């Protein structure tokens, strides 16, 4: 991301103040945060300032900082970090944000940008001659299935063609932006196929069956006894003894220490000779391994005493 700076001093207004309605909104928003955490309202307050004036001015940053008792530099850091905050003047009637991420790019967003270049300005973040329109390329706007798309302020316009975007820009330029219906511009319903539903097409029957089943269940809920006790309802049905319903657990019988001691098995005594035998299951018989490490008397020495190995 490139460095983001405030607009030149020549275009900065001398002061900023929230409208009476926005003052009440800001105070209500600040009260949503716990004591000592009111500075967390910095983002919504900056966004409301942008909605009021169209962009975030230096005076607005200082005003928000004063409201939240924050150093100016901290609010400036927030405003310059998030690209949703416009730091320079934008079109007073429309600022067109064209999605240029992969799905929209594959579906023709470059052609939409060409429309913006021809009808607004060749470069991004510049207004037209009347100062009413501006545009920029942005990252994903979150409606990839409806690509390509643009956003104007808070509204999205999807499934666009260059011709349709040109019509939308003309309407905003004429002050008739409220006549443009947001959402898909090709006639489909949200993200549904334009040809109509391909599944769950008979929604009436699906809902009727579900509601009938729910009504029957509700009617018999008061009198019917549960088939399975709640304590056993979550037990899986398997052939394992642990899930046998005949077994009552926990057992009421008390453990007898003497019986546990009598049933215990002593560990076998250590025997290197026995440990060095082969496994009958593997080699067919249990015979002594030939190993120089065997120290029992039954094991034969690997060489005669006193004779050095060759």
UniProtKB/TrEMBL annotation:
This protein's source sits in the domain of life called Bacteria
SUPFAM superfamilies associated with the record: Thioredoxin-like
GO biological process terms held by the UniProt record: inorganic cation transmembrane transport
Q: Which reaction does it catalyse?
A: a quinone + NADH + 5 H(+)(in) = a quinol + NAD(+) + 4 H(+)(out)
Quote the protein name from its UniProt record: NADH-quinone oxidoreductase subunit NuoE
At the top of the EC hierarchy, this enzyme's class is: oxidoreductase
According to the record, the residues making up region (Disordered) are 210-310
The Swiss-Prot or TrEMBL record lists the needed cofactor(s) as: [2Fe-2S] cluster
Q: Which organism is it from?
A: Oryzicola mucosus
> What gene, per UniProt, encodes this protein?
nuoE
Q: Which family does it belong to?
A: Belongs to the complex I 24 kDa subunit family.
Task: List the InterPro entries hit by this protein, alphabetically.
Answer: NuoE-like, NuoE_dom, NuoE_N, Thioredoxin-like_sf
The record ties this protein, via Gene3D superfamilies, to:
Glutaredoxin (3.40.30.10), NADH-quinone oxidoreductase subunit E (1.10.10.1590)
Keyword Transit peptide in the entry? The reply is: no
Keywords from the UniProt entry: 2Fe-2S, Iron, Iron-sulfur, Metal-binding, NAD, Oxidoreductase, Translocase
For this protein, the record's Pfam families field holds:
2Fe-2S_thioredx
- Cite the record's Basic and acidic residues compositional bias ranges: 267-276, 284-301
Q: Which GO terms describe its molecular function?
A: 2 iron, 2 sulfur cluster binding; active transmembrane transporter activity; inorganic cation transmembrane transporter activity; metal ion binding; monoatomic cation transmembrane transporter activity; NADH dehydrogenase activity
């Amino acid at each position: 991301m490139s460095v983001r700076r405030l607009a030149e001093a020549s275009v900065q207004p001398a002061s900023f103040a929230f409208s009476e309605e926005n003052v009440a909104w800001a105070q209500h928003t600040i009260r949503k945060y716990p004591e000592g955490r009111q500075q967390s309202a910095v983002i919504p307050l900056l966004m409301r300032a942008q909605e009021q004036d169209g962009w975030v001015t230096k005076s607005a940053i200082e005003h928000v900082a004063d409201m939240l008792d924050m150093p100016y530099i901290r609010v400036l850091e927030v405003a310059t970090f998030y690209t949703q905050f416009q730091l320079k003047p934008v079109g007073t009637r429309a600022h067109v944000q064209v999605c240029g991420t992969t799905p929209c790019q594959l579906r023709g967003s470059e052609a939409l940008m060409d429309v913006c270049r021809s009808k607004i300005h060749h470069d991004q973040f510049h207004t037209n001659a009347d100062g009413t329109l501006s545009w920029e390329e942005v990252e994903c706007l979150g409606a990839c299935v409806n690509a390509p798309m643009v956003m104007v302020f808070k509204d999205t316009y999807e499934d666009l063609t260059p011709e349709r975007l040109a019509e939308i820009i003309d309407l905003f330029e004429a002050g008739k932006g409220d006549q443009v219906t947001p959402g898909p511009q090709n006639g489909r319903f949200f993200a549904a196929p334009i040809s109509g539903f391909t599944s769950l097409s008979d929604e009436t029957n699906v809902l009727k069956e579900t509601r009938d089943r729910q009504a029957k269940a509700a009617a018999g809920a008061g009198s019917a006894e549960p088939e399975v006790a709640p304590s056993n309802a979550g037990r899986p049905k398997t052939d394992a003894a642990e899930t046998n319903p005949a077994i009552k657990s926990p057992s009421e019988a008390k453990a007898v220490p003497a019986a546990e001691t009598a049933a215990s098995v002593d560990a076998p005594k250590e025997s290197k000779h026995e440990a060095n035998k082969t496994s009958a299951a593997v080699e067919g018989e249990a015979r002594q391994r030939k190993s120089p490490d065997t120290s029992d008397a039954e094991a034969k020495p690997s060489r005669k005493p006193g004779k050095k190995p060759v």
